[in-house]
Amino acid sequence: MSIEIKAVKRDVKGTGASRRLRRAGSVPGVVYGGDQAAVAVMLDHKELFLQFRHEAFHASILSLVLDGKAESVLLRDYQLHPVRNTIQHIDFQRVSATEKIHVKVPFHFVNEELAPGVKLSGGNVSHIQTEADISCLAKDLPEFIEVDLGSLEAGHSIHLSQIKLPKGVEFVQLAHGDDAAVATILKPRGGEEASAAAE
């Protein structure tokens, strides 16, 4: 699924100019990376926010149309208004087809209710991580990574090395020797919960 966003170049920069843009319903932003110079842009807030609300927007290659020319970018940073929850500023990074990218991708946990640790032992699933840093080429970027908890016993955890990844994708943590736990099933009684979490 390709997500397209439209932007136009902005010539005026600075805090005052950005404030005026926001009042007019626009979001100031920057596109940088690759072998080109950084470009200051502005986007329509209403159009942008419709896309921004979707999980895929945060972990997908986006098609940014600037002056009629589309380029592949990743969302790299943004600032939200603390009260109004509007986007104050947004940064995009250009993506190369031949260079690996590092992106945070969300986990989608499945079959929790079927896990023996829940169904048979009455344990509770604890999500230790809800997303992970991955490395891959742009064409291989998944929107999310599925974590199947269907065979997890009470007091046991599932680690990064046990998760099936799409072809061409690797966990950055695992590549550095850190096989971290992603989810665990806590045993239902007090004293054993701590040991399950520690594992």
What does this structure look like?
- The protein is α+β, with helices and mostly antiparallel strands and about 200 residues long.
- It has two domains: about 5-95, Beta Barrel (Ribosomal Protein L25, Chain P), CATH 2.40.240.10; about 100-199, RNA Polymerase Alpha Subunit, Chain A, domain 2.
- It is about 20% helix and about 40% strand.
- The chain is built from six helices and 13 strands.
- It has helices at about 15-25, 45-50, 55-60, 115-120, 170-175, 190-199; strands at about 5-10, 25-30, 40-45, 60-65, 70-80, 85-95, 100-110, 125, 130-135, 145-150, 155-160, 170, 180-185.
- The strands form three sheets. The chain has a six-stranded mixed beta barrel with strand order 1-3-2-6-5-4.
- Strand 4 (about 60-65) and strand 5 (about 70-80) form a beta hairpin.
- The chain is elongated.
- The two termini are about 40 Å apart.
- The model is unreliable at about 190-199 (pLDDT under 50).
Helices and strands, in order, run as EHEEHHEEEEHEEEEEHEH
Largest sheet: 6 strands, mixed, barrel
CATH H-level superfamily of the largest domain: Ribosomal protein L25, C-terminal domain
Count of alpha/pi helices? 6
Task: List low-confidence stretches.
Answer: 191-199
**Residue fraction in strands:** 35-45%
> What is the CATH class name of the largest domain?
Mainly Beta
| CATH fold label of the largest domain | RNA Polymerase Alpha Subunit, Chain A, domain 2
Order of strands, widest sheet: 1-3-2-6-5-4
Rg for CA atoms: 21 Å
